[in-house]
């Protein structure tokens, strides 16, 4: 019997379908050991020796794997082909004392791929293992050394990350660009025109005396009014018609990054969900490995796509040759493949997937791969220039003549059909309409645009984008607004500002990108992993020691003229990991705290004592509740935001029992649990 160890039960079940009884396939359930959770685990003085511990979840798995390995003739480690998979294989070898285990890798979980991998095993690649170790140690150096600094100087519970902090910086800086942005007024002018046959179309003013006045060139209403006056009585004559054929080429197949971006744009899937769904599809054998930045496609897959297009779609949709794409990434492994279906014949309709999100993602991958090998879409484009005195208007039309790849991969493309027009034809002006516009600030990041900028600057790797985005939200450094765009929290701004001012390398885009390149060099065997860690640690530790002396916690306190209801001392603004709050300056003798009201939050007078105001507080478990600021004299507390009464400073009362109405789960309910009054929230 030969033992094959993989990461997951799903992957094990899929591989077992292709192999005979001489193989036993068992899952490790991911990593079996890691750095300790509650201690540093890195001996810096001992050349960065790492202390690994068995993970609790692996304590049941290890004896099963150990017993099976003792009965096996060959031990084959078939974990994923990336650094993380190589690391899992190495940890299995170390913990279970395997002697010269066989290591196999494959890009897809299909019978031919597994059989080919079994014919060409290799040893564990320690360069890949060391690259993963270096990343893990660098992250531990920052997290375990910088986080306590934040606890001491700002607030307990805060944390810093080597890559995540750069992502937060991007979001904070974008928000400040938006805050500083001053809209600039500009105008456009549209002419509604008609042919002599009564066919209507519109044209936009683009030139005055041959000079461009499109975009933001007309700055005031006065300017546009002068143009309108100039155009009184003008003749509108067609001076130029240009007709061209436009090809829209298909997109390349997906990489990890483009899959995450497109899944967000089409389905609003967070990056983490996309990766989880892709992992499931890969382990079921439906798609190739989903952690890749390569655009390469295997000859077999190209031939399969060609045959499918010719047989199922039509000869006119085959471009006559294979379409090959080259990645711009300098670190891409061309031996790897882009993300594609393992068998293009498995159409989305033929799959039995109970999970609709799985089906959506598979459909997207299947369509994108097939479309990448199809003919371009063809459009007829018409551009018409119309003269009116010294002014030039432009009308553009576009119509689809051949759908090409759009037959499989539809896009939202608007057709605009112009009437049949002739040069020197005189048109009838129906209406001139000026439009006021204002320049817009740069947009906030979405998951898609954040992934795109992380990839652009070389921050992290495609396989880490999902965890980066999840981590910065879990740490409460950024949140999503109603449009699902990222906004930094107050604490996110505070931590970012401290890191930018005092630990610039940690949040420097260029430095972080260079570190990723060094990790790639470790993976390629060009430099040692301890060397990279040492080069980072020495200046970082010296700077950290200096900042412990320089920065004081009092630097982050702000005095107020508010007085403590307990002891009448003045309140100060302090920080917790949830943001600012009021605290008594007489701490620790007096432990009174109060949550700051946001600027847009109404002040509501407490109806019980009619002296204090209702303020938001946070429980020891981090949950928000609302209480009277006159505590302890008044003990009013509510587990929901009170609803202000119209035209008064008091809360609205329940029409059934007279208790305070609160908002909870987007519904207005009575704060009296015995009362069942409910109504929909106005929000």
Q: What does this protein look like?
A:
- The structure is a single chain.
- With 683 residues, the protein is α+β, with helices and mostly antiparallel strands.
- The chain folds into 5 domains: 2-124, Rossmann fold (3-Layer(aba) Sandwich), CATH 3.40.50; 134-180 and 443-550, Topoisomerase I, domain 2 (Orthogonal Bundle); 185-249 and 377-438, Topoisomerase I, domain 3; 256-371, Topoisomerase I, domain 4, CATH 1.10.290; 556-650, no CATH class.
- Helices cover 33% and strands 22% of the residues.
- It contains 16 helices and 28 strands.
- The strands form 8 sheets. A 6-stranded antiparallel beta barrel has the order 9-10-14-13-12-15.
- It starts with a strand and ends with a strand.
Q: What structural category arises from helix and sheet content?
A: alpha+beta
Strand order in the largest sheet: 9-10-14-13-12-15
Distance between the first and last residues' Cα: 64 Å
Distinct helical segment count: 16
Gyration radius (Cα, Å) is 32 Å
């Amino acid at each position: 019997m030969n033992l094959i160890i993989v990461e997951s039960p799903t992957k094990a079940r899929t591989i077992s379908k292709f192999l005979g009884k001489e193989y036993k396939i068992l899952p490790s359930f991911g990593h079996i050991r890691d750095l300790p959770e509650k201690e540093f685990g890195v001996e810096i003085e001992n050349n960065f020796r790492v202390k690994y511990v068995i993970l609790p979840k692996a304590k049941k798995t290890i004896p099963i794997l150990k017993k099976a390995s003792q009965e096996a003739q060959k031990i084959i480690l078939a974990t994923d082909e990336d650094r993380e998979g190589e690391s899992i294989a190495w940890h299995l070898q170390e913990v279970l004392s395997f002697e010269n285990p066989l290591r196999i890798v494959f890009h897809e979980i299909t019978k031919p791929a597994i059989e080919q991998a079994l014919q060409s095993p290799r040893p564990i690649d320690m360069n890949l293992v060391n690259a993963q170790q270096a990343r893990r140690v660098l992250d531990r150096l920052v997290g375990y050394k910088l986080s306590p600094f934040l606890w001491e100087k700002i607030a307990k519970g805060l944390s810093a990350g080597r890559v995540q902090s750069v992502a937060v910086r991007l979001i904070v800086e974008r928000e400040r660009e938006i805050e500083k942005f001053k809209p600039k007024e500009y105008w456009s002018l549209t002419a509604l025109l008609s042919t002599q046959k009564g066919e209507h179309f519109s044209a936009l003013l683009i030139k005055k005396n041959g000079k461009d006045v499109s975009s933001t060139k007309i700055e005031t209403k006065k300017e546009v009014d002068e143009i309108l006056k100039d155009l009184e009585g003008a003749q509108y004559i067609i001076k130029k018609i240009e007709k061209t054929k436009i090809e829209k080429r298909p997109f390349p197949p997906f990489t990890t990054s483009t899959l995450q971006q497109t899944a967000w744009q089409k389905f609003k899937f967070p990056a983490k969900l996309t990766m989880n769904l892709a992992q499931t599809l890969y382990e079921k054998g439906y798609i190739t490995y989903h952690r890749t930045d390569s655009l390469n496609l295997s000859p077999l897959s190209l031939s399969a796509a060609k045959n499918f297009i010719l047989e199922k779609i039509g000869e006119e949709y085959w471009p006559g040759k294979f379409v090959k794409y080259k990645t711009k990434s300098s670190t891409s492994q061309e031996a790897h493949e882009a993300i594609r279906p393992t068998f293009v014949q498995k159409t989305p309709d033929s799959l039995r997937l109970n999970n609709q999100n799985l089906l959506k993602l598979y459909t997207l991958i299947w369509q994108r791969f097939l479309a990448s090998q199809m003919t371009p879409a063809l459009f007829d484009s018409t551009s018409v220039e119309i003269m009116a005195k010294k002014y030039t208007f432009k009308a553009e039309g576009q119509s689809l003549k051949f759908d090409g790849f759009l037959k499989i991969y539809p896009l939202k493309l608007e057709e605009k059909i112009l009437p049949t027009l002739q040069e020197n034809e005189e048109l009838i002006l129906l209406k001139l309409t000026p439009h006021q516009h204002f320049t817009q600030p740069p947009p906030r990041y979405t998951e898609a645009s954040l992934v795109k900028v992380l990839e652009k600057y070389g921050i992290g790797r495609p396989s880490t984008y999902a965890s980066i985005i999840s981590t910065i939200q879990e740490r409460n450094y950024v949140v999503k607004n109603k449009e699902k765009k990222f906004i930094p929290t107050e604490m996110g701004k505070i931590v970012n500002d401290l890191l930018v001012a005092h630990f610039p390398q940690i949040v420097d885009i260029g430095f972080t990108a260079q570190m990723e390149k060094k990790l790639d060099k470790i993976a390629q065997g060009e430099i040692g992993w301890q060397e990279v860690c040492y080069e980072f640690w020495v200046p970082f530790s010296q700077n950290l020691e200096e900042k412990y002396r320089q920065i004081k916690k009092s630097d982050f306190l702000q005095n107020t003229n508010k007085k403590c209801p307990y002891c009448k001392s003045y309140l100060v603004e302090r920080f917790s990991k949830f943001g600012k709050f009021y605290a008594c300056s007489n701490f620790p003798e007096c432990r009174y705290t109060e949550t700051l009201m946001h600027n847009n939050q109404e002040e509501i007078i407490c109806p019980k004592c009619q002296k204090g105001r209702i303020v938001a507080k946070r429980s020891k478990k981090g949950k928000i509740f609302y209480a009277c600021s006159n505590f302890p004299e008044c003990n009013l507390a509510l587990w929901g935001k009170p609803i202000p009464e119209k035209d008064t400073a008091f809360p609205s009362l329940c029409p059934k029992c007279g208790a305070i109405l609160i908002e909870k789960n987007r519904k207005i309910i009575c704060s009296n649990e015995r009362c069942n009054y409910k109504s929909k929230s106005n929000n």
